[in-house]
Amino acid sequence: MKKLVSLLSVLVMGVAFSGCDFGSDDNGGDDTIAGQDTVGGEDTAQDVLVAEEGYTYVRIIDDLANVVDVGCQAGNPGADIDAIELMRGGQDAASVVATAGDIVDVSDVPEANATACAANDKDDPSEVLGVADGVAGDGTFTGYFSLNGRTLDVQLWDATDAPVEMTVGDFLHVVEMHNNTPESAENYTIMVGYMGDTDVVWQDLTTEGSTGETFVEIL
Ligand SMILES: [Ca+2]
Ligand SMILES: [Ca+2]
Ligand SMILES: [Ca+2]
User: Which of 87, 109, 107 has the alpha carbon at shortest distance from 98?
Assistant: First the structure.
């Protein structure tokens, strides 16, 4: 059976906030950001074909250009991932049926990132587990993991710690913390995966350039 996965990328822009540290540029704010055209709430939609069922894994790939284009923010370099939630029946907290329950893998920090961004005080991947601690864009900045060029693999679990498969109509919700400034809403790519014979098989959702808070509709 085949599924069609449609990406609906929505950056939720809340009340402007100042004074937080995440995503803040440490060199005066003169940087430009790749993919900035997605900042500001414009929706995009792309369709890709998913050839297998049983998707319980999610991969978040940091955009290496975050460091180049956004700058090396003090203490939280790269995309700042608070939570990865699976929602059923809506796009609100009450609709969450599964969250990142297991950290499957975290890749090494690329050499270029390690050199440019040696300081990362948001370096605990377990911060992505469970429901969102903060709300992207509203100034509640807590409980997130700054990728600093890395790739993060998780499995979605329900409240009983059982893996949960994505089904048609679900929304995959990735909370990347930002404060309504272009340089704080950083780019990343989302993939979904299922367990093959020996390893997780990953499906690209063509979500490169996802920025800030993203919803992916499973169709
Ligand atoms: Ca960041
Ligand atoms: Ca969190
Ligand atoms: Ca950010």
Answer: 87
What is the separation of C-alpha 20 from the centre of its chain, rounded to a whole number of angstroms? 19
Which backbone phi and psi does 65 adopt, to 5 degrees?
Answer: -75, -10
The answer, as to whether pTM is greater than 0.85, is: no
For the stretch 23-70, pLDDT in tens is 433 333 332 222 323 333 333 333 444 545 688 999 999 998 888 777
Instruction: Quickly tell me which residue has 């050499």 as its tokens.
Output: 111
Output the average pLDDT for the chain.
Answer: 77
Classified as helix, coil or strand, 168 is coil
- How many angstroms is it from 197 CA to the middle of ligand 2? 31
Rounded to the nearest whole angstrom, what is the distance from the C-alpha of residue 80 to the centroid of ligand 1?
5
Identify the nearest ligand to the CA of 100 by its number: 2
Strands (E) in 57-196, as ranges, are 57-62, 80-87, 96-106, 145-146, 151-157, 171-176, 187-195
- With residue 65 as reference, give the H or E element that holds it: helix 65-65
d(Cα 48, Cα 58) in Å, to the nearest integer?
16
